[in-house]
Amino acid sequence: MLKGPDVDFPTGTPLQPSSPPSDADWESRKQVIKKIDAPLPPRSQPTDADWESRKQVIKQIYITESRTLDYLVEEMKERGFDQTEKQFRKRLAHWNLKKNNTSSGRATDPSGSGKRTRRDAGTTRPKASSDRKSEPLTALQMKIFLVLFPMRIELDDLGSLLLSADTAMRFYLACRESTWIWDIREPTGSREQTDVLQIWPALEDICQDIQTLYQSELWNRLQRRFRDLLAYSQQVFGRRPSDRNLVLCFSRICLLLSEIRDPTETTDSNPKRLPTFLVLRCFLIGLCQSMWQQPQQDHLLPIIKALLAILQGSPMEFKGMLARLYRKVMRMVQDSLGRDHLVTLTLSASLDKQLGNIIYAQSQGKERPSFDRAALIKLVIKTELQHHTQETSGQFQRLLLVQEILNALTTGDRYPGDVQHVAMILRSMALLSFRNATSPLVRLRAARAAARSSEVIAKMYLGVPGNDDYSRRTSIVYLDTAITTLLAQNGCEITALHVTKVHCKWLKEYNRNNGRADPETREEFERRAEEAEARKRSIVRRIPVDTEAPARVPRARGKLKATTKSESTKRLRKENRNEKKMFASFLLEIARWESFNTGSK
After folding, report:
1. For residue range 422-431, what is the model confidence (pLDDT) as tens digits?
2. Which stretches make up the Clr5 domain (predicted)?
3. Which of 188, 207, 297, 421 has the maximum number of C-beta atoms within 10 A of its C-beta?
4. Neighbours of 516 (CB within 10 A)
5. Burial of 533 (C-beta count, 10 Å sphere; 0-12/13-18/19+)
6. What is the C-alpha to C-alpha distance for residues 486 and 505, in angstroms, rounded to an integer?
7. Contact 418/406 with Cβ under 8 angstroms?
8. Are 315 and 565 in contact (CB under 8 A)?
């Protein structure tokens, strides 16, 4: 396992983040910062005796076990013999150790025909040691031992990307003895207790270098700095994540690395770009998930901000996978702080907003739908009904979310198969909120949401060709329910008038196209049409007409000419003052939530 430079950290009580450090504290750590920032000392050249003492081990790994030269370098580095690949190649040539050579102990054909003979029983190739835990994992082991994602999710797309990344990154991300994720709950034992405040300057420099190298597309140097980040993280990951300094330190790392942006977000120009881009974010998600042992409110907000940046900056084809991971983190927050906590509600609203943007972009044709949209919609609204039984500030956000999703899916004349499912859930949520809510703002939004969902369901029943008479009757019943709900709430006259006009139009079309129905059915629907017309006239009378509006004075280049409004213009119907007040309070509520979400991101 890689280790950082040997630095002698001064012992003593660590600085408390609540009090700013004094000049004496900075002077006491001046030498430490110089040692961390200083370049690594050059490797000492090994003597011939050092090489000869390790000749049998090198021969065993490279010749007998038929390992690659890269693997030999990494294996000897773990054994404390850190030399470059060029030095190993030069020493192997000096020893004349080559594969398929007689000096390696391989059996060859003495006739020189080039065909290999069968090995004797005593010269069989020994199997590789099974207790070497640090070797890279295979494709099957990657899915089993993928330590970044302990939850049970689908790993097809993620596993293929990680397997396409470089071997060195896979080695450090998916190694079985990666204690920075795997052994986080175990006791620290004899691990070095490094002060977080002293190790932070080196971590901050590495993160800044990673950002610069990523923007410059210097992939080899980026991988080396990424290894350094893991090595420095290894020194402090042994500690339990209950330390506030440790949590804040890694939260700052998440914020630094989450600012990395891919300028093109495509794999056509450089196939290495996207795997490296995703591996960095997977590392951050695993990093954050390892700190949820004892979460506190002051620890959660920086990590939430980092996770939101990860989700927003990821390419579209990976947002479905990252959203599932984000939902897992949201459950952790909910279990720790409670379902109705303000941080939990904000986190849920932010995630739902991101998923709504994904669905809207796909419904508009701006993005290629690379995952099942219906499955994502079910993911969004899967647990909304059970969270919606009590009146909280989350009720308001969930109503807006489902209504936005419904509006995005019903853009134009296209009605996918999952629209009915969303509209049904929205209608159930709206009617439940309308009955239980005490706030007039929530009741107003619930009434409008119920009318909107009922109108969509009725349009689906009426607009699909081949529907029977029962479906058309059902659509009219849904509209009756919507109008009754709207009229029960003061301030919804304008919306009720719109739904009533649609209701009258469909009733007339039904009566005109249903001439072969029995007399009782025809009389019933004619009576419904008359009642709808009477209801429309009564709603129009309930809407006040503002005749005291001042005359509009248009601007002109010359003189300003005051024009008087005609009688027909003066009698134009205006919106109800009560509805205006409620709509203004609705806008203020949205602005307050948006400002809170922006501050938490």
Report:
1. 666 666 667 6
2. 48-99
3. 207
4. 6
5. middle
6. 19
7. no
8. no
Backbone angles phi, psi at 451, to 5 degrees: -65, -40
Query: CB of 249 within 8 A of CB of 200?
Result: yes
Q: Are 334 and 344 in contact (CB under 8 A)?
A: yes
Asked whether residue 74 carries a pLDDT value surpassing 70, the answer given is: yes
**Residues 578/583/586/591 CA torsion (nearest 10 deg):** -140
Q: CA-CA distances (angstroms) from residue 104 to 236, 418, 569?
A: 43, 66, 101
d(CA 5, CA 266): 37
Encode 204-226: b = buried (16+ Cβ within 10 Å), e = exposed: eebbebbbebbeeeeeeebbebb
DSSP string over 85-145? HHHHHHHHHHHT--TT-GGGT----TT-SSPPPPPPGGGPPPPPPTT-TTSPP-HHHHHHS
| Percent of the residues in the chain that have a pLDDT greater than 70, as a whole number | 12
How far is CA 136 from each of CA 173, 175, 179, 278, 322, rounded to the nearest angstrom? 10, 6, 15, 19, 25
What is the per-residue pLDDT for 113? 44
The tokens of 316 are what?
Answer: 């579209």
Q: Is 407 helix (H, G, I), strand (E, B) or coil?
A: helix
Tokens 């909107």 correspond to: 452
Predicted confidence at residue 543, as pLDDT, reads: 57
Judging by beta carbons within 10 Å of its beta carbon (0-12, 13-18, 19+), is residue 124 exposed, middle or buried? exposed
Model pTM above 0.85: no
What is the rounded CA–CA span in Å between residue 163 and residue 466?
A: 50
Torsion from C-alpha of 477, 481, 482, 483, nearest 10 degrees: 100
d(CA 212, CA 68): 32
Task: Please report the pLDDT score of residue 100 as a whole number.
Answer: 61
DSSP 307-332: HHHHHHHS-GGGHHHHHHHHHHHHHH
